[in-house]
Amino acid sequence: GYFDPVPSIGWIALGMGCVLLGSTVGTSVTKLDLTPPLDEPIRFNRLRRKVYVYRFHYCWWRPFNNALWYVKPEVYDWNDLRAEEVCIYVPTVTYNSGVVIAVVKPGTNEVIDRFPLSDGTQGGASYWNMAVAFMQSGPYVLPKFDRPPRDWNNEDPGLNLARRFAPKVKWPEAMDIESRTAP
Fold first, then answer.
1. pTM to 2 decimals?
2. Closest by CA position to 33, among listed 142, 155, 161
3. What residues contact 61, with CB distance under 8 A and at least 6 apart?
4. What are 21-50's pLDDT values in tens digits?
5. Rounded to whole angstroms, what are the CA distances from 170 to 11, 40, 85, 152?
């Protein structure tokens, strides 16, 4: 057979496309490890009837656009929140379940936003039930835990580079004060 030592334009384009796709996916995976904050806390303020959410937004297919990778703290009215159980199944790849909080337009059931509460439906349902009990009756109805909740900002990351370089949770000052005080 005849072997042409000069590659054709099609093979060069295919090789360059593979390099471009590989570098984009590699950058996305690395950025997903290093840019999210240490935690995405949710604060429930019973007296204000508000929920404060520290959310990280990202666009995995556009890793070079930093404007699409950001933290945005948000405030929602408690009466506009609903819990939803979600199950995501991708054949031969993964099965994931959890509980998300749906934000509905006031006075309707039209969902305008969602944010995650937890992975796993059993734990998520328990967390939602505790949030409902807290918002209805106060902190005295919550179960007593053996250990205090973790504060990822003050934990030693050890050798975990993703946690070592991840930004700490920093609420905007006005929102931090509002989420911790009574009206």
1. 0.80
2. 161
3. 24, 28
4. 998 888 888 887 778 888 889 999 999 999
5. 49, 10, 29, 12
